[in-house]
């Protein structure tokens, strides 16, 4: 398949961006991380004066054959129930998107049970993945189709000079799939990459870790073949999120990663195109223990730390007002040189 081509961001332009940031009428560094975020947005957009951006958030849904091995506290039947609730506007992500002026869509890429609600975008590639202990969870062609579903979702958006695109997910057992992908792509020990997800503890958590070890031992996924890894042990929504990340970055837009599940998709996308890292914003530090390990490994600092572990894109939604604020500061604040304020007093 043909992947989106990302623009190359010039590191030399960071100097002028930082100089503008330092000239804003405030003590240097006094807005902390907001300054770094404003700098990154200006670097991605190629301008210091970004208009108030539109924000889009996609929640991709999928089901997973690994669920049959007791890796989740909830049965797979919950996934279509979650899709239906989201379609009705009653999920946490719906509320947060309404509150923060974000265009939201729920996209079926791999849910086992169809949901024909008009608010569900139909891009289904397969009705749930296979059992990874029995063989690859999908074909290579299906894996590519999942990536393409995410690409197509972004390509259907209006053309803006700059926008914010957040990626989230839903699907029972996808925290187990995230642990598989994170371990495969980063080398983080699978036990450290595996957390409670929906709330499994004690012997159930040990079972989850055992199953994940067995899957990795069976497939021995090669991170140099990212699509092969997705086909062997991944999930539909992970492919779609990765495709959407690449497509958004190819337009010169900022890509907001939600939490640990979306972070695993980002590992896939980064394996396909390492330059994506320049366009990524990590919305929050998930409460999943593997999330901190992952952030340390790829050397990315999240915006928020709210003890979230819901998924859906909720952390990404919460980061949008922070990013819009960082952009507004760069766009609207007067500079010392322009305002005639003495820098000696600051």
Strand content: 5-15%
Q: Could you list the spans in which at least 5 consecutive residues all have pLDDT below 50?
A: none
Structural class: alpha/beta
Number of helices: 14
CATH level 3 topology of the largest domain: Rossmann fold
How can the largest sheet be summarized?
Answer: 6 strands, parallel
Strand order in space, largest sheet: 3-2-1-4-5-6
Name given to the CATH architecture of the largest domain: 3-Layer(aba) Sandwich
Query: What is the typical, i.e. mean, pLDDT?
Result: 95
In total, the number of strands is: 6
Helix fraction bin: 40-55%
Question: Could you state the oligomeric state of the chains shown?
Answer: single chain
Shape: globular
Which homologous superfamily in CATH is the superfamily of the largest domain?
Nicotinate-nucleotide-dimethylbenzimidazole phosphoribosyltransferase (CobT), large domain
Quick summary:
With 346 residues, the chain is α/β, with parallel strands linked by helices. 47% of the residues lie in helices and 10% in strands.
């Amino acid at each position: 398949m043909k992947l989106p081509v990302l623009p190359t961001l010039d590191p030399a332009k960071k100097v002028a961006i930082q100089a503008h940031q330092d000239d804003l009428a405030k003590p240097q560094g006094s807005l902390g991380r907001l300054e770094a975020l404003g700098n990154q947005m200006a670097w991605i957009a190629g301008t210091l004066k970004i208009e108030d951006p539109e924000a889009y958030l996609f929640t991709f849904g999928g089901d997973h054959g690994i669920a049959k091995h007791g890796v989740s506290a909830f049965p797979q039947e919950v996934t279509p129930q979650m899709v239906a609730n989201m379609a009705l506007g009653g999920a946490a992500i719906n509320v947060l998107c309404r509150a923060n002026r974000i265009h939201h869509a729920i996209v079926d890429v791999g849910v086992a049970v169809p949901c024909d609600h008009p608010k569900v975008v139909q891009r289904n590639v397969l009705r749930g993945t296979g059992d990874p202990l029995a063989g690859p969870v999908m074909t290579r062609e299906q894996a590519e189709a999942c990536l393409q579903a995410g690409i197509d979702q972004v390509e259907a958006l209006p053309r803006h000079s700059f926008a914010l695109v957040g990626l989230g997910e839903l699907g029972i057992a996808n925290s187990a799939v995230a642990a598989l992908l994170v371990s495969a792509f980063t080398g983080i020990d699978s036990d450290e990459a595996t957390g409670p997800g929906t709330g499994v503890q004690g012997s159930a958590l040990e079972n989850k870790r055992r199953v994940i070890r067995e899957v990795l031992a069976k497939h021995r996924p090669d991170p140099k073949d990212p699509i092969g890894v997705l086909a062997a042990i991944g999930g539909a929504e992970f492919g779609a999120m990765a495709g959407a990340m690449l497509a958004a970055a190819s337009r010169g837009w900022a890509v907001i990663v939600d939490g640990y599940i979306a972070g695993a998709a980002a590992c896939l996308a980064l394996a396909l195109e390492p330059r994506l890292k320049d366009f990524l914003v990590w919305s929050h530090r998930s409460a999943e223990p593997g999330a901190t390990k992952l952030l340390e490994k790829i050397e990315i600092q999240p915006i928020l730390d709210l003890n979230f572990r819901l998924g859906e894109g909720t952390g990404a939604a919460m980061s949008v007002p922070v990013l819009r604020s960082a952009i507004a500061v760069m766009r609207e604040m007067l500079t010392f040189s322009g305002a005639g304020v003495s820098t000696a007093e600051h």
